[in-house]
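## retry 2 of 3
previous attempt timed out at serialization; input unchanged, resubmitting
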Amino acid sequence: MDFQIKGPDFEFSSGELCLDFANTADWHASPNPQEYLNSYGDLLVWGRMAGIISDSEAKQLWQCSQDLPSEAQAALARAIELREAIYRIFVRLADQETPSQSDLDILNFTLQRALPHLRVAPSSEGFSFAWQTGGQDLERVLWPVAWSAANLLTSEDLDRVGQCDDDRGCGYLFYDTSRNRSRRWCSMESCGNRAKAMRHYQRKTS
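## retry succeeded, writing output
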């Protein structure tokens, strides 16, 4: 990756772009989530790592953010607002509850701003959707995120969205691709192993 701005080491293992974005706050269900989007530069790093903006777009947006710092800060605030709305929407759906209209309104507002920039373009496999490049829209990173959330919400496999069962407030969202839809953890290496060790300890001490 040629675009060089230091940022957090983001994780992309949820299975859906919008859920990866929702997971940019760690321990999201705890009383004190850890924020990873602390600057507009962090948002650009995430977008570049996610593959939704190119190096040239990232550099252009970075320069624009330096020229327009107040606008960049406002774009970051809207990004976090969208992230929290997406998080709440899919948490409620994972709990088999109905998302709030206010959160859907936030998503739809971003989607409305994004759709005029969506194009059909030639690809190696024929044609695919693509986002208009160029310009200096500081919310460019949010367009594919809103589109991803809309596609997931209208898919037949919406019930595959789950949340880590860790009782400390991990809160990680994921798209369960297991055959019997049995995924429970963000990963077996972290929360899954802790739960396994806790069950082992309880069996030995009971």
